Amino acid sequence: MLAVAVIVFRETLEAALIVSIVLAASVGIPRRTAWVAGGVGAGVLGACAVAMFAAGIESAFAGIGQELLNAAILCLAVLMLGWHSIWMARHARELAAEAGTLGRQVAAGTRPLTALAVITAAAVLREGAETVLFVFGIAASAQDGPAPILGGVGLGVGAGFAAGALLYLGLLRIPVHRLFTVTGWMVLLLAAGLAAQAAGFLLQADLLPPLGTQLWDTSWLLDQDSLIGRILHTLIGYIARPAGVQVIAYIATLVAIGVPMKAIRRVRRTAPVLLAVIVIGAAAGLGPYQATANASTFQPAATMAR
Amino acid sequence: MARSIMPLIALLFAIPGVAIAAGPGASLTLRDHQFEPSELTVPAGQKIELHITNSGAAPAEFESADLKREKVLPGGRTVTIYVGPLRPGRYEFFDDFHPSSRGHLVAQ
Question: Of A41, A152, A268, B88, which is most buried with the most CB atoms under 10 A?
Fold first, then answer.
């Protein structure tokens, strides 16, 4: 039972941390809880579907179906996190001012509720599919009936939820005027980490060149398989032995989201800087965006993943 | 000369769990939660096409932080991943669904 709980916990933890960041980063947006919950529900259903068709997905696209699906889901999450970041850069001040007065009219414009739901669904789907596969695998070969397995799953999911709740409640203790600065950075680092993971999958499928299989090795300092290593892998994209192309994806995502974010904040203060900012933003932002776009053109339409 | 190294080669193959992969392709089999061979030697400095067979009925997940690879292995299937070019060294991998199932890829 404990062995099951540990494995389920590890898978749940990653999704729970991402959902916590999304929830903390969207405090004050009306109806966000319903959308995030919808995202979790969709993610669970998607995870079951992916687990059911795991063998078919594996053999799709000449054996790289899994990698393509994972990379596509990760790229989608990165795009949505980018959209959310840029939206928050525009509206964070209003949200902070109105936090607490629930349901008040938030600034006009497309609210990133769809983005929140998609990010949540992507995180739950990816980790959930592995959990479902694992649980059904051991259930098929279990000899002592379903009770120890169900107990382990409950314990693992419960512990994962608890870790996510801890992060969320910790973030909420940050004064509201600083909360969105903190979550803004967290979302940015999360997006960059997911982009590096996506690059890793395309590398594994031999669709991207490594550009240096291992740029450095910090596993002596922090083992990526340890609990802290795994948490940092999710939160900031820690990779003990990164490939060159992963580092490039990481930095490109930081620039592609961070530069427009900063630019928007600055424009609100000084109009004359507008032109310069647009030029810089275009120069620094578009290049990496194209790189990301190339990666996402591999997206298979509807078939997919693990 | 050639004759003198023959027993050495024979000895190498006689050591259980050690295999020498010829060229840039290599194979691993997961059987009863054990990787066979548990230590797979591959050439360093080359991209390796690694074929992993899950001979059991239950799904498994090949994972390695050292190699930065993870892939679900459906029951009864052989999957392919690409690794490297690797620097000489030992790289650990495991079945994420049974973390006690571990093995090493040795690049030399």
Answer: A152
Topology, domain A2-296:
Growth Hormone; Chain: A; (1.20.1250)
Predicted ipTM?
0.75
Structural domains in chain B, sorted by start: 2-107 (2.60.40.420)
Concatenating the DSSP letter of every residue in chain A gives: -HHHHHHHHHHHHHHHHHHHHHHHHTTT-TTHHHHHHHHHHHHHHHHHHHHHTHHHHHHHHHHTHHHHHHHHHHHHHHHHHHHHHHHHHHHHHHHHHHTTSTTPPPPSS--THHHHHHHHHHHHHHHHHHHHHHHHHHHHH-SS-SHHHHHHHHHHHHHHHHHHHHHHHHHHTS-HHHHHHHHHHHHHHHHHHHHHHHHHHHHHTTSS--SSS-S---TTTS-TTSHHHHHHHHHH---SS--HHHHHHHHHHHHHHHHHHHHHHHHHH-TTHHHHHHHHHHHHHHHHHHHHHHHHTT--SS----
Q: pLDDT tens for residues B38-82?
A: 999 999 999 999 999 999 988 999 999 899 999 999 999 999 999
Among A136, A206, A243, the residue with its CB nearest the CB of B68 is A243
Nearest CA in chain A to B99: A7
- Kindly state whether B69 is in contact with chain A, defined as any CB-CB distance less than 8 angstroms: yes
**Single pTM value for the model:** 0.81
